[in-house]
Every structure is written in C-alpha cells, then in structure tokens.
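Hello again, I could really use a second opinion on something today. I've been staring at a protein lately and its backbone has me curious. Can you walk me through what the tokens say about the fold? Take your time with it, there's no hurry, and the full record follows here:
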Amino acid sequence: MQNLNLRALEIFRAVATEGSISRAAAKLNRVQSNVSTRIKQLEAQLGRDLFLRQNRRLDLTADGELLLSYTERLLDLSREASDALNARKPSGVFRVGTMESTAAARLPAVLSRYHGLYPEVEIQLETDTAGGLIERLINFDVEVAFIAEPVTLERISTRPVFREQLVLVAPQNFPTVGNAREISGKTIVAFEEGCAYRRYLQDWLRESGIVPGQILSVGSYLAILACVSAGTGYAVVPQSVLNCVSSEGEFSCYPLGGRYARIDTLLAWRSNYTSGKLDALDELLAEVKA
C-alpha cells in the first residue's frame, strides 16, 4: 500500500468535519469534482469505504472514524515539524478565534505587538460565541481561541489570560436593579445562544428569581448598546467593552455581584497542538496584566 498523502488527508478531514463534498470544497477553495475524486482515490487506496452516503449527508463509517483519529495526529505532527524547523522565527498562517468583546477590548494592543515582533506570521482573526469557538477548535478551523470560562473538554487545554467584570446595562428609565424583581418580564438583549455572557445573565436571573421576558438576539456589542440606549431592554456587557465606548448618560450600569461579578477569558488550544506561533502568543499574553 502506498503511503498516505497529507494533502489527501486534509481533504478527507474537511469532508468529515463539514459532512458534505460541497461545503468541504468551499472551505478548501477547491472545485467539488476535485474533492470528490480525491476521496474516491483515498477509499480505493485503502480498500475501505470511509463514508456512509445517506441523502445528501456524508457520515463516517467505523473505518472513517479510525482514519480521522490518525489524520488529526498526522497533520498535527506535520505542523509541529514545520514549526520546529522554523522555531527561531514563527511564520505562516495563524488562525485565531475570539469572542467579539475580546477582539474589541483586549486584543488590539497584543496583536499589534505580535505583528511587530513576528511580521512573517499572517494572523487570521475569526469571531464567534464561546460555544461556536469550541466547535471551531475541535474542527481544526482555528489553532487557538479566546473563550470565556468554563471549558471542560479533555481535548482542549486552557490558561486564564483576562479577567472581565460583568456589568448589567439598562435604559435610564429602567427599574432599579436593587429591587431586581421589578425587571421580571423585561426584554433581554444578547448575542445568540452559545454566548457565555448570555448564559451568565440567564443564570443570574434564575438565581435572583427574575423571570426574563423575550430575548432579542443581535450580532454585535454596538447593536446591543444601541438597543439598550433606545429602551428596548437590558444586557450584560464586560466593563472592558464599556471602557471602549462613550456611554455616559445613555444608560444605567449595575456591576453584577457574587460569583457572577467576574468571568475569566481563557486562551484555549487543542491539547495535542504545539507551535512556535502559540508559544510566542502565550509569552506576550503572560506580560499582560489582566
């Protein structure tokens, strides 16, 4: 049997994680016929069916699952070897996932310094919710991610890098949060399901005996704060984000108390992933006062 080709394994992994030839082709920037041909060639080489073809969905067979586990290890080793040979100066594409709040309030100075020190690294920054970022890590869409705690998967290693103070922001005419039950039934303005801060807010409401009203899902902190300022409802926002905007007089702010007062942002990576790019980022973050 011929040795497995790393490029073929990359294509196989993309199809396995995306569940379809078309989505894998789009992700890899290849034509569908090329991806389909490479999968058929790989199956012929191994003498095994790697996918169950049901409707328009491709699911892994038992042999496919086994190959995927080896594929992840082989591709990681390939990257590690490349990084080791270029350890003196990190280079190449570095895909970094992050929550929008971290991207806006915490990372600009860090990434600017990183770029100055390692200009041969091309950083591709991708934003998502905490839940979405975990999926991106597992699916190899990003190498590292900044995710709000907790992260409990054994496959992912983490280190706290920033500590955020959470603040409830509300319209100026809102009931006083000191009498919290008065806000029962009011609208919540938040990111979509999977946002760690939204989860914290919902847990705080539940423990406080507050019944939330409707949830208005929006896609940015600018939109969240604009909706709050307009009187739509209330939200939870990191203080670091508020420090980046001019908000005086537009809404009322109430720092959350108890165990919901603060939340750590973690640097997360797959436990078997190592690279000079990650080490360089970790060193810079260690110098940052959270």
